[in-house]
Specification:
Layout (H helix, E strand, L loop, with lengths): L14 E5 L5 H13 L15 E5 L10 H4 L1 E5 L6 E5 H7 L1 H12 L4 H7 L2 E3 L13 E3 L2
Helix pairs in contact: 1-4, 3-4
């Protein structure tokens, strides 16, 4: 049995629009991570960055199920002693919902150069408008 490997020169990237309104944050992040990685393609090759461009709109309307709004916390460290900062999920979704989705997608991608390059093809917007109409993106339904 022979295995066909995708060459980077023959790669063709498409643009997709994902609407996050009314959908759980984690489930949206899984779909976006798979599109960025290229796992939806027939000729997926793990060692080649063969993913597509993804535009996510309405990130401010994404939901968190259960008690996650009150119990989930996001942490960051300034590097100084005692510099651990905590932000509750409710505050994060009200102020920086696009960043919350970005963190969720980033955690689902590989921690190497393929994952870093994939994150550059992710475009997040809080509202329903985006400036990428010239690329003719296709709508991806969850």
């Amino acid at each position: 049995m022979s295995t066909t490997l995708l060459k980077k020169e023959t790669l063709e990237r498409k643009w997709y629009v994902v609407d996050a309104a009314g959908k759980p944050l984690g489930r949206t992040a899984v779909i976006v991570a798979n599109l960025l990685r290229g796992k939806h393609k027939v000729d997926f090759t793990p060692a080649v960055d063969c993913g597509d461009y993804v535009i996510v709109i309405n990130t401010d309307k994404a939901i968190l199920t259960g008690k996650k709004l009150d119990q989930k916390s996001y942490y960051r460290v300034s590097g100084w002693i005692g510099g651990l900062k905590e932000t509750k999920a409710r505050t994060m979704m009200e102020t920086r919902s696009d960043y919350a989705l970005e963190l969720a997608v980033k955690g689902m991608l590989p921690k190497n150069s393929i994952g870093r390059n994939s994150m550059t093809r992710l475009h997040l917007y809080k509202g329903a408008e985006h400036p990428h109409a010239a690329q003719k993106p296709e709508a991806w339904t969850l």
